[in-house]
Amino acid sequence: MRSTPKAQRLSIGLFGRRNVGKSSLLNALTGQDLAIVSPEAGTTTDPVEKPMELLPLGPVVFIDTAGLDDEGVVGLQRVHKSRLALGRVDIALVVAEGKVWTDHEASLLDEVVRRNIRPVVCFNKIDLGEPDPKLLRHLRSRGVAVVEVSASQGWGIDRLREALFHAMPQDFYESQVLMADLVPPGKVAVLVMPVDSEAPRGRLILPQAQAVRDLLDNRAISVVCQDAELPKALAALREPPALVVTDSQAFAQVSAATPPGVPLTSFSILFARMQADLTELARGTAGLARLRDGDRVLLAEACTHHPTEDDIARVKIPRWLEKKTGAQLGYEFQRGHEFPEDLTPWRAVVHCGGCMANRREMRAKLWRAQQQGVAMTNFGMTIAWSLGILDRALGPFPEALAAYHKAKAEVAATAEVDA
To answer: Which of 129, 249, 313, 381 is deepest in the core (most CB within 10 A)?
Structure first.
């Protein structure tokens, strides 16, 4: 944990046509030769992420993308990848040549605004020509930040950093709460971390490591154990812990060993709250009760780990779902940043906690599911629901629990009408 995880960094994407100087601009912003620069159009192919510390913004991740005017079969695939990156940026840096503004820039800016992404328009190469003053006035009248720079000459880079700083959501870093509101300073959280075939040798997985660091930062106390040792760990404490957090796969064992009065949840649910919208995901969980024979479920993971023999997404969750619903279901699996535009072929989407994604990406996926009327939930809540302990798993989050019960009643009422 020597550096801030990418999921907790402000995400800034550079978008524009080929050869407008996106990579040169990135190098000028960071003061490093991070991106390959060439006069030949199309040097940048797939989007490339570059974590940085950029003052005065702090930890950020830049996403350098291919030109949006690329051509040919491969070129159109690059354009698709570039537009896909819009789904995970907090700030979109729309880069244009100083004296050129085309339909590519106009439509891109419209899409950025429509997606509620904070835009900054950067006219690069102003040493070769300046933008039309009428265009500048029009953009600024829309409330869009506009900066004129020359990356090659170093002109205007400080003004661009300032514009990015002002575009950053004011509460971006302060709003990333994992457990600080659940475990006060000086209190204890017990973290249950089973060591199984999916546990990496010699280290903790990212959610576990971040949970320990979060408790340390908040001056709280962490007690770490495996599920078999949980009774001994609880017995060794002088007072009950403020919270028990478990790997979702051990929910059943941990729930049985944890006294009823002790709050219990999972790492997956904590990250769903921090990265997405726990209340909406809780509503989506109620939709799992609608699953019937032949329905299809999309299981999505933000990371790209190699599946194991008893993989949670490919084996365990389907097993638990079918036991709970009594239905024979069809499954498809998605990894990484790819996520279908059309979700209607699936009855439900079950997503991981999203520790390798960021909030913008996770909330964009959730919004898409809501707009298309597809129930979306996450691994932890799906497992807890399948095991009949979702009320307890959502106990620390009263608003989400109330939303789940309201949605559950709506699902039941719909089922009665259908019957």
So the answer is: 381
Rounded CA-CA distance 247/251 in Å is: 7
Q: What is the pTM of this model?
A: 0.75
Residue type (1 letter), 133: P
Is residue 273 classed as helix, strand or coil in its secondary structure? helix
Q: What is the pLDDT of residues 46-79, one digit of tens each?
A: 678 888 888 777 788 899 888 887 667 666 777 7
The span from the CA of 174 to the CA of 101, in Å, is: 37
Q: Which strands, in side-by-side order, build the sheet including 58-64?
A: 48-54, 58-64, 10-16, 91-97, 118-124, 145-148
The one-letter amino acid code at 417 reads: V
> What are the tens digits of pLDDT across the range 106-143?
999 999 998 889 999 999 999 999 999 999 999 999 99
- Cα→Cα distances 5→207, 212, 302, 330, Å: 10, 14, 14, 34
Q: What is the layout of strands, in order, in the sheet containing 221-225?
A: 221-225, 188-192, 243-246, 264-266
Q: How much is the mean pLDDT over the chain? A: 88
Domains of the chain (ranges; CATH) run 6-167 (3.40.50.300), 188-268 (3.40.50.11420), 277-418 (3.40.50.11410)
At 36, is the pLDDT very low, low, confident or very high (cuts 50, 70, 90)? Answer: very low
- 350 closest CA partner among 393, 395, 416, 287: 287
3-state secondary structure the chain: CCCCCHHHCEEEEEEECCCCCHHHHHHHHHCCCCCCCCCCCCCCCCCEEEEEEECCCEEEEEEECCCCCCCHHHHHHHHHHHHHHHHHCCEEEEEEECCCCCHHHHHHHHHHHHCCCEEEEEEECCCCCCCCHHHHHHHHHCCCEEEECECCCCECHHHHHHHHHHHCCCCCCCCCCCCCCCCCCCCEEEEECCCCCCCCCCCCCHHHHHHHHHHHHCCCEEEEECHHHHHHHHHCCCCCCCEEEECHHHHHHHHHHCCCCCCEEEHHHHHHHHHCCHHHHHHHHHHHHHCCCCCEEEEEECCCCCCCCCCHHHHHHHHHHHHHHCCCCEEEEEECCCCCCCCCCCCEEEECCCCCCCHHHHHHHHHHHHHCCCEEEEHHHHHHHHCCCHHHHCCCCHHHHHHHHHHHHHHHHHHHHHC
- Tell me how far apart the alpha carbons of residues 138 and 136 are, in angstroms, rounded to a whole number: 5
